[in-house]
Amino acid sequence: MQINDWQSELEAKAIRKEKQKAREIRKSQWWKNRRAINICHYCETPTPARQLTMDHVVPLARGGRSVKSNLVPCCKSCNNQKKNLLPIEWVEFLEKIRKK
To answer: HSE of 91 in the Cβ direction (CA atoms, 13 Å)?
Structure first.
């Protein structure tokens, strides 16, 4: 096994572990309370709690973790557009869209 293959496997395992943590947090009262605010973290659009998704502010693929300080409720539209962007990249993306 090459070093790159080994590193990729370790990264994949770490991401799977973090996704499992996120699934557990999603069941918690803390998450239900966060979601109950009914507002997308990014666009601040009122959104029914059941339609809000969990987003990692710093994406797992970019080294983020499934900890409360890195998880926010957001609408599906923002979540799909943000993808793996870091917060600063997301702000730049939104500014470009607003200029158009």
So the answer is: 4
> CA separation (Å) from 24 to 17, 20, 34, 84?
11, 6, 15, 21
The model's pTM is 0.85
CB-CB neighbours of 73 under 10 Å: 22
pLDDT tens for 2-57 read 667 777 888 899 999 999 999 999 999 999 999 999 999 998 999 999 999 999 99
Which class is 3-99 in CATH? mainly alpha
Nearest to 17 by CA among 55, 59, 65: 65
What whole-number distance in Å separates Cα of residue 90 and Cα of residue 87? 5
The ranges assigned to domains in the chain are 3-99
Task: Report residue 89 as tokens.
Answer: 């990249």
